[in-house]
Amino acid sequence: MIKYIAILPFLLFPFAATAKIGEDVIEDAIIATDISFPEIVEAALALSPEREFLKSKNYNASLLASKASNLFSATPILSIHHQNDRFLSHQGLREWEGSIDFPLWMPGQKSASQKKARLSKEEVAAYEKLVILQIHGQVRELLWELKISQMNMDQARKNLELAQEFDFDVNKKIAAGNLPRQNALLSSSDVIERRLALSVAQTEHIHAASAYTALTGLSQMPDNIEEKVIKQELQAIRAPILQLYDARVDFLDAQYRAVRASWESPPTLSLGVKRESGSYFDRNVDSIGIGVSVPLGSTSHAKSKQAEAALLLAEMERERALLEREYSLELHEAEHELEVCEIQLPLTQEHNEMASRNLELSQKAFDIGETDLLDHLKIREQYFTANAAYNQIALECKRAIARYNQTTGVLLP
Q1: Separation of alpha carbons 84 and 344, rounded Å
Q2: Which end of the chain is more exposed for a tag (fewer CB within 10 A), N or C?
Q3: DSSP per-residue letters across 361-405
Q4: pLDDT tens sequence across 255-284
């Protein structure tokens, strides 16, 4: 008697669950609308910390351009000097002297600095282009994570509904005396398993939605996010990340040439005026002076700066070479993913169709009593697995197209 009382909740549970099939189904966290990809990217860029960094890089490039266009190589220096003998011999010696030192450009130094400033602006433009592409990549990934998690959640809902409908049918057969009562436990366990699967799928969808909202600040996504493969000749592909490193190498090369064209301390042109008086009885003598100062013995210091600039250039060239290798592998991986999809997708589709037909035959056999419940549940599980695998790969193959376009530098339409 105690045994049957313990089983009673499991026998009653299927009817209660079937009466409210979708009671624990959450609403979609992100709403599909007609919002465009550029709007999403702009929203993500507005929240990106890269935005302020780009402003700083633009400001720095503007300062370099301003410095390179200056008449002098550095800031002129104003000097004022006064001398008298009031606290010593007190003969009336007074002397005032003022001068301005103008640092001069060395031959080729100004043009090298102007080239450095121009390449700095090009480096900023390349970096901005890379940032925009990276945001496109982040948006792409999160949109497809949303799409896949939505599909998994819909699949879990469908599986739960099928399990509940089947559980209801099993209990009707038990009530009619066509099945042993212990079969209710197997059917109820299958419903519970489907509920757990739905709960996991809902959690994953919520996580994907939270990540998308954190990146963009939006709760909308486009109705259609599918892309077409945009093939390019390998020779024509120069990814923005490589373009950025090209610009950085060019900038450091210009910086190295600017350092080579400059001295440790620049020569200066001095213009000054002087008023002097030898005693209280002498008249003031006013004069104008001009002079040139040339630093000596600064070769070792200049070579040290040149070596430092050359080292920075060599390091950047090395990083670019390594990055080109990494990008080549990344591009190959993106192409390989597309090739794998072409093979896997028709196979999983065929497997799904076979599992569906097998389930239909098993259902007919179970209805007429030729198959027991346990064997039928195994075939149902095979169908659920095959169907989920096909839907998963179908979306992953579409995501592979988006990843390939991202790798080759194609922006979202």
Answers
A1: 96
A2: N
A3: HHHHHHHTTSS-HHHHHHHHHHHHHHHHHHHHHHHHHHHHHHHHH
A4: 888 888 777 677 778 888 877 776 666 677
